[in-house]
Design a protein that fits this description.
Blueprint lengths: L3 E11 L4 E3 L4 E2 L3 E17 L4 E4 L2 E3 L2 H16 L6 E8 L8 H16 L6 H11 L11 E5 L8 E6 L7 E6 L9 H8 L5 H6 L1 H13 L3 H20 L10 H15 L5 E4 L5 E5 L4 H11 L4 E5 L6 E3 L6
Parallel strand pairs: 5-7
Antiparallel strand pairs: 1-4, 1-14, 2-3, 4-7, 4-8, 5-6, 8-9, 10-12, 10-13, 11-12
Helix pairs in contact: 2-3, 4-7, 6-7
Bound molecules: adenosine-5'-diphosphate (ADP) and ligand DP6.
Length: 324
């Protein structure tokens, strides 16, 4: 029976934004993320005469499809497999908009590959496989909080579960400002960021920021988690702005939401932001503040869509299910 692999996206609270080895996607820094329940990708593979990639029911050609086929060829070489495959995938997340579609996409693809060839791989191995497709996908193998230890080579660079089912009141509000595909992929953005004079000093701070975040999570300290996540995201966007030449994923509304977050905090509403490689903002708050934060956003920006998320699970395999 055909099984479908489902992976949820994750949002990094300590970001991955640079590679020591581009081909193997070995990062320059360790990262930590929260897997989200609201956004996910479903994928299955089929034998086929010709390689084909269907995303959301549409045949995809060009560089997006090539990235998928190159990845499958790499896995086939590693595991001694061959044959043409067609990929069927459904994103329940906007594609390439800075809402982490590549994290759920390549975790689901790695799991679909393991399922198709019935590989006996454990979660660590699956995380390594996912990493080869997109770095952030290494963390989507796990639910709750995951840490991707940077390592030094293929064997030592994988994610592990920090807490698969956290007993913590942490809500994420995804503020969708523009869900169109971005012009500069994460892969290209992180390469360009390395030209910033602040890149090296930022990398030096990584082990400190990671250990502070792990402690905050262990202490169930929402305030500290929010402060550290906001600082780390701001550092990432500062290195983009100060790259040579500089660039940014921000749009005017992105700045507007950041200013509103500052204003809300001044007025006693505890909310923090984090932002990935796109204009959309993710807000971190507690359940008691979800309603008021949404109201403030809607009254300030009538065109934004807000999606509520909390902790999501790791990889799942679904029976008897058709992609919709
Ligand atoms: P995002 O912010 O969405 O993670 P990225 O630039 O990191 O954006 O990655 C987007 C790329 O991931 C897409 O251009 C495409 O190549 C790939 N991708 C997205 N969804 C899928 C999918 N379901 N299956 C395979 N590849 C996908
Ligand atoms: C800003 O994992 O998409 O979301 O490995 O080149 O595919 P590639 O990059 P990708 O980058 C994610 C960047 C980020 C931060 C993060 O998720 O850690």
């Amino acid at each position: 029976m055909k099984k479908i692999a489902r992976a949820h996206t994750n949002i990094a609270l300590i970001k991955y934004w640079g590679k020591q080895n581009a081909a193997l996607r070995i990062p320059l820094m360790s990262s930590l993320s929260m897997t989200l329940d609201a956004f996910y990708t479903d994928t299955y593979l089929e034998p086929s005469q010709q390689e084909q990639f269907y995303l959301n029911g549409k045949l995809i050609e060009g560089p997006e499809a090539q990235r998928v086929f190159n990845y499958l060829h790499l896995l086939q070489r590693r595991y001694g497999k061959s044959g043409n495959l067609s990929v069927h995938s459904q994103n329940h997340v906007p594609t390439a908009a800075g809402l982490a579609s590549s994290s759920s996409a390549f975790a689901a693809l790695a799991a679909a590959f393991a399922e198709y060839y019935q590989l006996a791989v454990n979660e660590t191995e699956l995380s390594r496989m996912a990493r080869l497709g997109s770095g952030s996908a290494s963390r989507s193998v796990f639910g709750g909080f995951a840490v991707w230890q940077k390592g030094t080579d293929d064997q030592s660079s994988f994610a592990y579960s920090l807490d698969s089912n956290p007993d913590l009141d942490l809500q994420l509000l995804a503020v969708e400002i523009n869900t169109g595909a971005k012009k500069r992929s994460s892969t290209k953005g992180m390469q360009a960021a390395q030209t910033s004079p602040f890149f090296a000093p930022w990398i030096k701070r990584n082990s400190l920021e990671l250990s502070q975040m792990i402690n905050a999570i262990k202490n169930h300290d929402f305030t500290r988690i929010g402060q550290l996540a906001e600082l780390n995201a701001s550092e990432m966007h500062a290195v983009n702005l100060t790259a040579q030449p500089g660039f940014t994923y921000f749009e005017p509304t992105t700045i507007g939401v950041i200013q509103l977050v500052h204003e809300m905090r001044q007025n006693g509403i505890e909310v923090y932001y984090t932002i990935d490689a796109g204009p959309n903002v993710k807000l971190l708050c507690q359940l008691k503040n979800v309603k008021i934060v949404k109201e403030k956003l809607v009254s300030a920006f009538d065109h934004v869509k807000i999606i509520n998320a909390s902790f999501g699970p790791g990889i799942q395999y679904l029976d008897n299910y058709e992609l919709d």
